[in-house]
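Tutorial, part two.
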Amino acid sequence: MLSTTIQSVRELGRLRGEIDALLDRRGVPTNAAADTNLVVTELAVNGFEHGGATEVEVRVAVDEHRIAIELTHVGIADLAIPSWSSMPDPLTPRHRGLAIVDRLANDRETIVGPSGTTVRCFVAR
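Running the prediction step on this input gives:
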């Protein structure tokens, strides 16, 4: 299991390296590892850009069937977080993060509390 905290998007390179090392040790196929890193990146960036996070706690765990992902940040989202996100109009330059997450991961759950937001989801191995 990986449990770490990042304070900015500048730390995403280190985080992706740590995730790759964990998934490689556990024998996770390359495509599932790439999907996991993309999901974590999108969720972390959303936490910083839309959630007002000053840090994001990241947990990644692996079992024989799936990769569990959980990100928690202190801050309140500045927009509604849908339970499912569809891809925006192709001419829209942004707002694809959750749509990408929902295509790569399963069972996304978002818990918004008075002091922050936790997002949990799973990527198939």
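The chain has three helices and five strands. In part three we will examine how such features are distributed along the chain.
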